[in-house]
Design a protein that fits this description.
Helices cover 27% and strands 16% of the residues. The chain is α/β, with parallel strands linked by helices and 210 residues long.
């Protein structure tokens, strides 16, 4: 947890974007995130270090598939995958995992990396957390992600589990971080437990740090 505590000097009191994997990411203006601290999930590292300040992944199969490309990503990389057996010298920082909930001393898994990334942003002291790509449904073309996903086949029933997991974290959020606001920047998202706003409206009003 020492590595996460060191992030507080970077993220504490700021607006932090958590960049998920939903198809709606394709329509988002990534240039906006160059001025906002961003925790990216999984393939988000492909947007580059100017966009993604911190990367989080939670699956060893994903890591093995992306190992070569990820090794070129210069920013901080975290995982709460307890099955990881890291070689000496690897840059990945390990964080404890708990199966559910949001925690102050571990990252709750809740069945998906997005939930863990929200937990990470909370621990590091963000004042406002904005969610991008938390669609929680397939798009009109049947796609589950903004990127190709050769490792997993996400089906509509999976989203029910994801939503239940995040919904169950709301009491922990309110109990441990009552001063932190979480806003879902996709009005079409099926994740209903956080207030919604369009990303265009949010960023037109400012990035929240003023």
């Amino acid at each position: 947890m020492g590595a996460m505590r060191s992030l507080q000097s970077i993220l504490e009191g700021q607006t932090v974007c958590v960049l998920g994997g939903g198809p709606s990411v394709r329509g988002f203006n990534m240039d906006l995130l160059k001025s906002v601290k961003t925790v990216g999930c999984n393939d988000a590292y492909k947007f580059g270090p100017e966009v993604v300040d911190i990367l989080l992944f939670g699956d060893v199969k994903w890591y093995r598939h992306h190992y070569k490309e990820l090794s070129l990503f210069p920013n901080l990389v975290f995982t709460n995958c307890e099955k990881m057996d890291l070689d000496k010298g690897e840059r990945v920082l390990m964080v404890p995992r708990k199966p559910s909930g949001f925690h102050i001393d571990a990252l709750g898994w809740n069945g998906n990396t997005g939930a863990s990334a929200i937990n990470l942003a909370l621990i590091t002291g963000a004042r406002t957390i904005v969610l991008v790509g938390f669609d929680m449904h397939l798009d009109a073309g049947g796609n589950s992600n903004w990127h190709p996903n050769p490792l997993d086949s996400v089906k509509p029933e999976h989203y029910k589990r994801y939503k239940l997991g995040i919904n169950g974290c709301v009491p922990d959020w309110l109990a441990h971080w009552p001063g932190t606001e979480i806003i879902n920047l996709n009005p079409d998202s099926e994740l209903e437990c956080f207030p919604k706003m369009s990303w265009k409206k949010f960023f037109k009003e400012g990035d929240g740090n003023e």
